[in-house]
């Protein structure tokens, strides 16, 4: 009898350990197969992501590591535009300007977030079908949301159909955020933030947290809050389909806001998104950018964004806009410079004097990636020619981007050669941008041109060795 029990216990133990082993096997197997496409790098307290071997680039999937960008939150973003719901930049003009590079990046980051987070669970979503002023009153009574809302989840979407204002009271933070198409002169209370929306009827897509933080120019301290809502305006005004907290919807609409602006503002003749800001380069008072200027990087990133739009719509108008976007890269010298009068470069910041160039590395690589994206949906011979010409330049020029004294560190541009200026060392973040672009290009050429793939891999490795 005893013996029998002992055997039974051994048998049970065996079964249990087999089950545990099997579970372990599944976990390990899974973690090998579902290795993250990114490797996290910590550098001086900041987190960066470069590509791992399981990253696969594709012209209609996420764009590099942009899912981790938060373009709206950057200090260079002054506020979110009142008509287009896209970021307004303060990069080259302190009063703000719409900057195609930033707008394309805004679209690409939201597209990438949608691709990456498609399976994550949504937070609680609040929905109001129709809000309108009370019969005898200019304003409605307050609608109270019963649960606390995390401020990071305050994505809102609504349709504004007439002249009115929509008020949100953040009770614990003591802030009233007002979206209004009317002119509001009530500046008596410093706790009121007014976002002067333009254009109606239209759909509005915003992140309340960003609107507040850009207005008060600081970070909110109380991270979650109770919110109440009301509308004020003429009796026939109303707000439809007010949705709070749907991040997927917000990213989707942000993607469309960016593409809509690009499609509406492209210059039909040249294909450029001209930038009308007067600008010198760095400290070089004698070197002006062309005015207005057409940036190869803007053209390339906008093309990458529109290629992703086209993958959804298959709309011929979108394809034509993509062809126009790439046109200034190959059909004229509008965005180009020649290194040693010979090697073709796509300039992020084209200079006024056509003989001169800055040769900013990341700008040219982004433009190249855009051209490759376009080639995948529209394989025209002139694109292949351009791609090959740039690769020949890179074969010749990449050695110049190695820092002369900091081992295996990269340079931002070649202005020290072409303009005899001080060496322009890449910042940490640009050094990592160089790495990720070279990694991606190396992967893209692996099948079609091995020696080119090797070249990019070699420089990616050198630059990585400087941070590890
Ligand atoms: C990194 O963060 C720690 C703690 O927040 C701080 O003490 C340190 O000065 C930071 N270092 C750098 C290089 O910013
Ligand atoms: C909206 O209201 C403002 C007053 O706040 C007025 O100046 C403006 O003309 C109105 N717009 C339309 C289209 O009714
Ligand atoms: C959030 O928005 C997305 C995109 O429109 C939609 O597919 C999804 O159903 C919405 N989620 C909820 C819970 O309403
Ligand atoms: C661009 O400039 C180069 C060098 O000056 C010249 O050889 C070439 O013909 C020009 N290309 C176009 C398309 O204008
Ligand atoms: C690879 O690219 C380089 C530069 O464009 C070109 O010279 C070479 O012929 C290409 N090789 C192949 C196999 O296509
Ligand atoms: C630069 O990187 C390469 C590749 O990782 C490495 O072999 C080389 O030793 C590095 N050079 C220096 C000076 O650290």
UniProtKB/TrEMBL annotation:
<keyword id="KW-0812">Transmembrane</keyword>
<dbReference type="GO" id="GO:0015012">
    <property type="term" value="P:heparan sulfate proteoglycan biosynthetic process"/>
</dbReference>
<dbReference type="InterPro" id="IPR010598">
    <property type="entry name" value="C5-epim_C"/>
</dbReference>
<keyword id="KW-1133">Transmembrane helix</keyword>
<protein>
    <recommendedName>
        <fullName>D-glucuronyl C5-epimerase C-terminal domain-containing protein</fullName>
    </recommendedName>
</protein>
<dbReference type="GO" id="GO:0047464">
    <property type="term" value="F:heparosan-N-sulfate-glucuronate 5-epimerase activity"/>
</dbReference>
<feature type="domain" description="D-glucuronyl C5-epimerase C-terminal">
    <location>
        <begin position="266"/>
        <end position="452"/>
    </location>
</feature>
<dbReference type="GO" id="GO:0030210">
    <property type="term" value="P:heparin proteoglycan biosynthetic process"/>
</dbReference>
<dbReference type="InterPro" id="IPR039721">
    <property type="entry name" value="C5-epimerase"/>
</dbReference>
<keyword id="KW-0472">Membrane</keyword>
<dbReference type="Pfam" id="PF06662">
    <property type="entry name" value="C5-epim_C"/>
</dbReference>
<feature type="transmembrane region" description="Helical">
    <location>
        <begin position="7"/>
        <end position="28"/>
    </location>
</feature>
């Amino acid at each position: 009898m005893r013996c029998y029990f002992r055997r039974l216990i051994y048998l049970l133990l065996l079964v249990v350990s087999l089950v545990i082993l099997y579970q372990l096997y599944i976990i390990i197997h899974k973690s090998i197969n579902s290795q993250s496409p990114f490797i996290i790098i910590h550098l001086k307290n900041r987190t960066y992501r470069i590509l791992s071997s399981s990253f696969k680039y594709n012209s209609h999937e996420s764009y590099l590591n942009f899912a981790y960008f938060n373009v709206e939150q950057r200090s260079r973003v002054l506020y979110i535009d009142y008509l287009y719901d896209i970021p307004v930049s303060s990069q080259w003009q302190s009063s703000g300007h719409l900057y195609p590079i930033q707008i394309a990046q805004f679209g690409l980051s939201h597209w990438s977030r949608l691709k990456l987070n498609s399976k994550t669970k949504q937070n609680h979503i609040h929905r109001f079908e129709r809000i309108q002023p009370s019969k005898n009153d200019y304003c409605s009574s307050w609608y109270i949301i019963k649960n606390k809302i995390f401020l990071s989840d305050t994505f809102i979407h609504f349709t504004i159909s007439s002249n009115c204002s929509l008020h949100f009271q953040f009770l614990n933070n003591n802030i009233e955020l007002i979206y209004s198409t009317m002119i509001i002169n009530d500046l008596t209370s410093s706790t009121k933030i007014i976002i002067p929306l333009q254009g109606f009827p239209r759909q509005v897509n915003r992140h309340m947290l960003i609107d507040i933080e850009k207005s008060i120019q600081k970070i909110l301290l109380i991270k979650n809050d109770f919110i109440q809502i009301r509308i004020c305006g003429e009796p026939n005004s109303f707000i439809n389909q007010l949705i709070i907290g749907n991040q997927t919807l917000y990213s989707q609409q942000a993607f469309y806001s960016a593409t809509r602006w690009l499609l509406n503002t492209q210059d039909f003749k040249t294909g450029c998104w001209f930038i009308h800001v007067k600008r010198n380069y760095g400290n070089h008072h004698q070197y002006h950018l062309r005015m207005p200027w057409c940036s190869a990087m803007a053209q390339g990133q906008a093309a990458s964004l529109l290629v992703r739009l086209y993958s959804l719509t298959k709309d011929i108008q979108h394809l034509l806009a993509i062809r126009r976007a790439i046109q200034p890269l190959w059909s004229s010298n509008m965005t180009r410079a020649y290194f040693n009068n010979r090697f073709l470069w796509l300039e992020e910041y084209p200079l006024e004097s056509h003989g001169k160039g800055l040769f900013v590395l990341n700008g040219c690589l982004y433009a190249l990636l855009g051209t490759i994206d376009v080639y995948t949906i529209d394989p025209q011979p002139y694109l292949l020619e351009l791609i090959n010409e740039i690769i020949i330049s890179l074969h010749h020029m990449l050695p110049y981007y190695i820092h002369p004294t900091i081992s295996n560190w990269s340079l931002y541009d070649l202005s020290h050669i072409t303009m005899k200026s001080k060496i322009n060392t890449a910042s940490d973040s640009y050094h990592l941008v160089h790495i990720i672009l070279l990694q991606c290009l190396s992967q893209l050429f692996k099948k079609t041109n091995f020696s080119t793939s090797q070249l990019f891999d070699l420089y990616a490795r050198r630059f990585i060795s400087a941070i590890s």
